[in-house]
Amino acid sequence: MSKPQAIVFFDLDGTLLTSDVTVATSSINAIQQLHKNNIIPMISTGRTVCEVKHIMDQTKMDSIVAMNGQCVLYRGEQVFTNDIDKSVIERLVTFSKERNIPVAFYNDESMHISDDSQQAYDLYRYLRQSPPPVDANAHHKYPIQMLLLLCQDGEQDYPKAFPELTFIRNTPYCVDVFNKGGSKGNGIKKLLAAKNFADVPTYAFGDGMNDIEMFKIVDHPVAMSNAVEPIKALAEYITDSNNHDGIANGLKKFGLI
């Protein structure tokens, strides 16, 4: 299979998704044009694969950097995973119970939560999803690539207690947790190395703090106008907002469609 002309990575929340958590018609049309131009569109998200399958189906994207780079699929093929050590997870679960912070367990095929809690309902209502099934022992049954702390605050003690992990607040209701050194940027590096794509031009659209490492890796970082200031500071170009055709307009700016 020939190399793509370019690869474009799209964050989801606040970027590819509008504020009503849908993909704009202009974005769907733009992504279809990328396919026609031999440019690979890839989702790059804090969410896991099974969580966004409906978006991948809708946009006909079969490539994704999932869970902040902890799992990478390219054209449906798994090229990288970054599992968290089970003993570390067990320590974190115990640490969290002492602080009344429920935990969610994610891999590329499933999601579970430790407790049927108000914190879980708050998060998944915010994401406009139903809470995953409860299984406090999921980490003993499946490889886990990302954890969520289901809390609005209280995460400040975790980085010192777990120096082998990275903690990033991704919504008002949760903190993403994964192996130190893991990031969207690291997942992209693994993809480019595995597929010998070092010479393929790369673009990324994003708006949030978990896009920082991705913006540092790609050739052309594009911030949404609704992005946080640190992301705008790293951007080569600032496009329109996620609610005002920012994806399509940004792709046109770079001549990709």
UniProtKB/TrEMBL annotation:
<dbReference type="InterPro" id="IPR023214">
    <property type="entry name" value="HAD_sf"/>
</dbReference>
<dbReference type="InterPro" id="IPR000150">
    <property type="entry name" value="Cof"/>
</dbReference>
<dbReference type="InterPro" id="IPR006379">
    <property type="entry name" value="HAD-SF_hydro_IIB"/>
</dbReference>
<dbReference type="GO" id="GO:0000287">
    <property type="term" value="F:magnesium ion binding"/>
</dbReference>
<dbReference type="GO" id="GO:0016791">
    <property type="term" value="F:phosphatase activity"/>
</dbReference>
<keyword id="KW-0378">Hydrolase</keyword>
<protein>
    <submittedName>
        <fullName>Cof-type HAD-IIB family hydrolase</fullName>
    </submittedName>
</protein>
<dbReference type="Pfam" id="PF08282">
    <property type="entry name" value="Hydrolase_3"/>
</dbReference>
<dbReference type="GO" id="GO:0005829">
    <property type="term" value="C:cytosol"/>
</dbReference>
<dbReference type="InterPro" id="IPR036412">
    <property type="entry name" value="HAD-like_sf"/>
</dbReference>
